[in-house]
Design brief:
The complex is a heterodimer of chains A (314) and B (257). Chain A is globular, with a radius of gyration of 23 Å. Chain A contains ten helices and 14 strands. Chain A is an alpha/beta fold and 314 residues long. Chain B has one domain. The longest helix of chain B is centred in the C-terminal third of the chain and has 33 residues. In chain B, α3 runs parallel beside α7 and α7 packs antiparallel against α11. By secondary structure, chain B is mainly α. Chain B is built from twelve helices and no strands. In chain B, 74% of the residues lie in helices and 0% in strands. Classes of the chains: A alpha/beta (314), B mainly alpha (257). The interface between A and B is medium-sized, with 37 and 30 residues. Bound molecules: adenosine-5'-triphosphate (ATP) and magnesium ion. Adenosine-5'-triphosphate sits at the interface of chains A and B.
């Protein structure tokens, strides 16, 4: 089956006055299957927003091609626009003086929906994102998180097959973030495809079937979220929390242990195989270290290792 | 048909924005003062056209201010507020939305005509009677339509320009003069007159004055010219607005982030 989204050698530069152009996307090739939730990760300035904008037709690529459900984003702009929904994070982008409902009614018209349909969908969506009770309040009285929910409702109004979400949960409270994740999963069950740009590793781990890591406009890796730890070597390990290094030193002497590593908040013991891990776990439990667990490198670790010691540089 | 619905929705949106943000209506406070000043200046001159002028000029100035100041702000405000990007992402062209919003803005300007008439009638006891009401009404209507087209053009020019404020400040008086708004263009130097013939206001002003005095000749021609100039401006404005969108997609300068 044809991919929901495919980008091929996509390139985008931004001209600057009296300086070299910025290369925001550098021959990026990426494919997202239908019904997939695909995470887009990368440091500030990596090119995530640029990619989302090109795929949703608000920005033209400098070179390369991109297709959404088989339609070229440059040549078939109109078709693509009816198929995709764009949700930009943040609290701007709405008519602040108007009510949430009025904002949606106006937006529905931009998607050529008739008044009855928009009204019905607006009510249902306001309910779904938890804004039903505030539907008639002007948006200027909304908190940041409430605005973001309204953005999401707006992006869903025309029932798009493919959704591009750019940091949709920055600023949502934990309860709202969980509700948001549940909503995304529900929408996926309805058959929709998602591209989710985020800095939240837990969110990406919880939601995404696959993730792509980009930096300086280049694709560093794409992999299944569940098994992404493999990228750091196909290794067995056991993690545990302990205040001092005595256990670590003792463990390092065991024959089944290949390495012991100090991570930020815990120790990591690398073992030769699954059996070795089992024995290390038993060894730790015997010594009352109940925090011990069989571990795989997390998405965050993969991210940190792959992007490297960039610090604050962009 | 869908686009007409979008225009209507955009019109309603703008009307609601105006209702909730009364600064949109501020200009209507100025109109009675303009009428009053013009009347006070000319009341004792015993010129027969004094009253006609005092009523018509503030009306047309109201339309122009609406077109220039308020309509010119429609696109830039969407850009500043981060609404431009999600709007471009929608399948309906931004141009269609802008037409609807600009039309609503200009109609607020048209209220200035009624206000001006009332100021003269109630404030000064000078009721403007119109010799040919049919032509007068048609002229007002055509003038409003042409003002919508012109507002669209101004909106496009302002959205494309880098010097918005300068433009908005400098595009008023020259057009009041060229448009024969405050005094008839017959008092202008001969070499200026051809320029004023492409400003719809000059045709409107003359037709409105003639209809009030009962000295109308060739009203159909005048109406046709007013509407044609308005239509040309509308087409130009829509083309420019499309260029604003194309430019943003190419340069990536106007965005949300
Ligand atoms: N309009 C623009 N003009 C010039 N350069 C731009 C423009 N928009 C983005 N860039 C540059 O392109 C690069 C990629 O930016 P982009 O916004 O796509 O990054 P991002 O991955 O979304 O970052 P963040 O995580 O901070 O949102 C950056 O170097 C940025 O400075
Ligand atoms: Mg971004």
């Amino acid at each position: 089956m044809e991919a929901a989204v495919s980008a091929s050698a996509l390139r985008r530069t931004y001209e600057r006055k009296r300086k070299d152009a910025v290369v925001a996307l550098d021959d990026l090739t990426l494919s997202i299957a239908r019904n997939e939730i695909h995470g887009l990760l990368g440091p500030n300035g990596a090119g995530k927003t640029t990619l989302v904008k090109i795929l949703s037709t608000v920005l033209l690529p400098t070179a390369g091609t991109a297709r959404v459900l088989g339609h070229d984003v440059v040549a078939e702009t109109r078709t693509v626009r009816t198929l995709v929904g764009l949700v930009l994070g943040g609290d701007r982008g709405l008519y602040d003086r108007l009510s949430a409902r009025r904002n949606l009614l106006f937006w529905g018209a931009l998607y050529k929906l008739d008044a009855r349909t928009v009204r019905r969908r607006a009510d249902a969506l306001l309910e779904r994102v938890g804004l039903a009770e505030r539907a008639d309040d002007p948006v200027e009285r909304f908190s940041r998180g409430m605005r973001q929910r309204l953005h999401l409702a707006r992006g869903l109004l025309h029932e798009p097959q493919v959704l591009f979400l750019d940091e949709p949960t920055s600023g949502l409270d934990p309860v709202a973030a969980v509700a948001f994740r549940r909503l995304v999963l529900e929408l996926r069950d309805e058959g929709r495809t998602f591209l989710l740009a985020t800095h939240d590793m837990d969110e990406a781990t919880a939601l995404c079937d696959r993730v792509s890591l980009i930096d300086r406009g280049r694709l560093l890796l794409t992999d299944d979220t569940a098994s992404i730890g493999r990228i750091l070597g196909d290794r067995e390990c056991v993690d545990f929390v302990h205040d001092d290094g005595t256990h670590a030193e003792a463990l390092a002497l065991l024959p089944e242990v290949t390495d012991v590593e100090r991570l930020d908040d815990r120790w990591r013991v690398h073992t030769a195989d699954r059996d070795g891990s089992r024995r290390v776990l038993a060894w730790l439990v015997e010594r009352d270290v109940l925090t011990a667990r069989h571990a795989q490198p997390t998405l965050e670790e993969v991210y940190l290792r792959t992007v490297g010691d960039r610090g604050m540089r962009v | 048909m869908t686009y007409l619905r979008v225009v209507w929705q955009a019109f309603r949106l703008q009307a609601e924005l105006a209702r909730r943000g009364p600064q949109h209506l501020l200009m209507l406070l100025v109109t009675p003062m303009q009428t009053a000043s013009l009347l006070a200046l000319t009341l004792h001159s015993h010129r027969p056209d004094a009253l006609v002028n005092a009523v018509i000029a503030p009306g047309m100035i109201g339309l122009w201010v609406a077109a220039l100041d308020y309509a010119g702000r429609v696109v830039p405000e969407d850009q500043w507020a981060g609404r431009f990007t999600p709007m471009v992402a929608a399948p309906v062209p931004l141009t269609v939305v802008v037409v609807g919003r600009v039309a609503a803005v200009v109609l607020v300007g048209a209220v200035a005509f009624a206000e001006s008439w009332l100021t003269a009638a109630v404030g000064f006891g000078r009721v403007l009677t119109v010799a040919e009401p049919g032509v007068f009404a048609a002229a007002v209507l055509a003038t409003c339509l042409a003002a919508v087209g012109t507002a669209m053009l101004l909106s496009g020019v302002i959205a494309l320009s880098r010097a918005r404020d300068v433009l908005q400040n400098s595009l008023s008086y020259p057009f009041y003069i060229l448009g024969g708004v405050v005094f008839p263009i017959t008092v202008l130097p001969a070499w200026v007159r051809p320029f004023s013939r492409v400003v719809f206001l000059s045709w409107s002003a003359q037709l409105l004055r003639d209809a009030a005095h009962g000295t109308v000749r060739h009203w159909a021609v005048s109406l046709a010219v007013i509407l044609a100039l308005g239509a040309a401006a509308l087409a130009g404005g829509m083309w420019l607005t499309r260029r604003v969108v194309d430019g943003a997609r190419r340069k990536g300068t106007v965005g949300f982030a």
